[in-house]
# Entry
Amino acid sequence: MLQTLLPILIFAALAVGAAGAVRRIRLWRQGRRTPMRWHRLVLMPKRYLNDLHHVVARDKAIAHTHVATAGGFVAAMALALVVHGFGWRNPILGGLLLAASLCMFIGALAVNRRRIDPPAKLSKGPWQRLSKSLLAYSVGMFLVSLPLVGVAPTVLGGGVLALILLALVAWGLAEMLIGMGWGGPMKHAFAGTFHLAFHRRPERFDDQHRDVAHDVHRGSRSTALFPLDLTAKTLGVEKPADFQWEQLLGFDACVQCGRCQNVCPAYAAGQPLNPKKLIQDMVVGMAGGSDARYAGSGYPGIEVGKHHGGPTDAIVPQLVEAQTLWACTTCRACVEECPMMIEHVDAIVDMRRFITLERGETPEKGAAAIDNLIATDNPGGLDNASRLDWAADLDIPRIQQRPEGVDVLLWLGDGAFDMRNQRTLRSLVKILRAAEVDFAVLGDEERDSGDVARRLGDEATFQRLAERNIATLSRYRFQRIVTADPHSFHVLGREYGAFGGDYVVKHHSTFIAELFDAGRLSVKAAEPGETVTYHDPCYLGRYNGEFAAPRQVLAALGVEVAEMERSGYRSRCCGGGGGAALSDVPGKARIPDMRMEDVRETGATTVAVACPQCTAMLEGVVEPRPQVKDLAELVAAALAEPAAAPTARNSTEAPEEVPA
Amino acid sequence: MTQPERSASAAGEARVVALVSSGRHPVSGRAGRAREDARAVEMGLALAGASLHLAHAGDAEDAALPEYLGMFHGLEGAGGPGELSLLPMAAGDDAVPLLANWLEAYGANLVLTGQRAECGEGSGLLPYLLAERLGWAVATGVAAIEHYAGDRVTVLQALPQGQRRRLEVRLPCLLCVDGVAPMPRQSAFGPSRRGRVEAVANVTAEPDTLQAAWQWQPARARPKRLKVVKSTNARDRFKAAAAKSSASGGQVLTDLSPEEAAEKLIDYLRRERILTAPSGE
# Structure
């Protein structure tokens, strides 16, 4: 009986699953089409075994569990097809099938143990069922295959036991094959396969990246936002079908593991954002229906099950509330953690673009900042000519007076208007002078880099600013740009390339580390006893892979760094990125307060920062708290007084501590 | 702000027009939406939705025009692209006859605009000159439109210190919108790109001969009178600080013939040394 029914079961499940898969592919292809690159399919195994495993393996137990279960299943399925499906009942193959089923069974046991009391980040519902289905499939397949090696009694060939075994196998096949095609939890394997092959950012898998720093940190290989064609019919994403089809495919690959939810600063602060739910909502929108069947944590403060969507229905507000999109700080922590390489931030910015460019519903302060950027080239609406007011006594050389060119163009960023950041800039100038760096500034010709406009979805204003800045920069000669603002650093260095601006851009931490390496800076020994911790800015670390230089600088100062639990690529955002400080979505806690709590846990009395936004956000935490100092301030304070005064120009230098 | 009430009949035949001018940013001096005109457009959009029509006399390339058209979003109904009629003229031409002729030809019965332009002459006289020429009513300092039906519109006029006066104005009329009117909506790039600027054909602008005869000199900042508040009372000090400078020592004149009123005004202007030449010629 088994020998006749098993092939029928297997092929029936395959056929039904395939029909579902075709329907699923149609769902993905509702998105905007791009040229198909079929040859990328051959890249899939490498991307899966290398790049994806690299992320999954951050949690060793899960990685081993997945290898056993998934590897066991793939082998068991392939062998079952040969042995039971086509009836090539070879004992060696049978033995291999038994081994594969056993391997899968062991993996499934681990899955089930995790599912007894699942952590909050995991989705329940069908995902709880999947753990049982894995057991059913592996046990059923093991037992029905025992006769192949002659172990089992022939009784297995008939009777009630056979029916029970068949039922087990049928359950397993239904979950694994039919569910894969028809949107069950196993969909992730099918969608994930194609998602890895057709990923929108192939650079993420490129081991021959030209920038070595980004090879060490894979997450920063491709982080620039995609330019938007401003002549397109509608701008940004209004409905799920407006996404590129690769994005829809990516959403479908989600395994609802909740790693993104665990690291999302907005979720932790009780703001109405949960990256996992957002991706699931995109799946709901793509397939049509309501979010009532979602079995994980929702957006804080928003009830699950009240929203619905369809491929050609507007996403906001029926499917996702605008507040959810504006809560994102674009810190990229979710993208960094996602084992399926889903690009949450791209999706959020795409939807913001529609809200800002087509609907004109940017949150009030964000809209004001954009209006100011249009009118005055800076988000504060200030006179651009006052960009250098803080340096009135420093006699900083202007690049306009240096037609022969300079080594370093110092990009000030909009922190130049902020009194707190002006202290950092003064420190940086002091350091550059101490190291006798040949530098100059653009002065009032510098405009905002466009970072905030772009993250708020105003691609038109961003592109206008980018083009004007690029035109300005093309008039002057310099070797490299140095900036104390990681946002400018990222935008100038990685996003202007698409508009024809290719520059060597260095963050001041990198540049200062190089100055130390070259022996151009000498510092006094640090005072012992002070504990310092370092807060990695998202746009320096996760976006650009620079984790080492700031720590080198601190080491050069002789400071011991007490690392926070979440540091390096897992650093928690300060809450100030992506225009989130402007949209200011209410939550239960403030993100900088939580970050300061991380700082306190290390026992540090000073937190070293390297970004004007982080400085502002962390200093906004009420006292008493550890003091917030930019790396430049720490270095400038430790500078040994120059034994030989470098140039006459320096003699006029003002005392460092100027009240801002 | 609440939506103004309007009866179906009025909304059906409503021809609401907003006159827009080129604004100047107070810091950078860049062209953009003028603050009061943008509020006038906002008021028009709240009243007439996408059927609001914009008009501008001036340069077709002005950067402010797309910004006004970018406000045509979030409107009930079809919400088609915004439309702006452009009456081409040079900076030295007289906008009044152009606009008056066009408004008549268009059949507008409610015209919204700001109180004064942010560049050029900026005298704030245009609404009065237009109303005079068209024989329409004019109301200034409009903070809100309360009711719009039949041949009348009820508006709230802004007075100093947050006071409001309810006015009933006969249509057709010109309403000059005050800076305290509701904030204008964001100007979005998409609608601004789709908005249409249509140059009105067969109009010939005439040079502003009066203006050409004027003598121009740079404005001189007049010293401000210091307000000394002698009070031990916090409430009085606060009131004094919050008060808009209001005229004092004036007199209210009623029941005068137009000639007498003109005499009084000329006397006053002489006293203030605004008029120096003897009246007459």
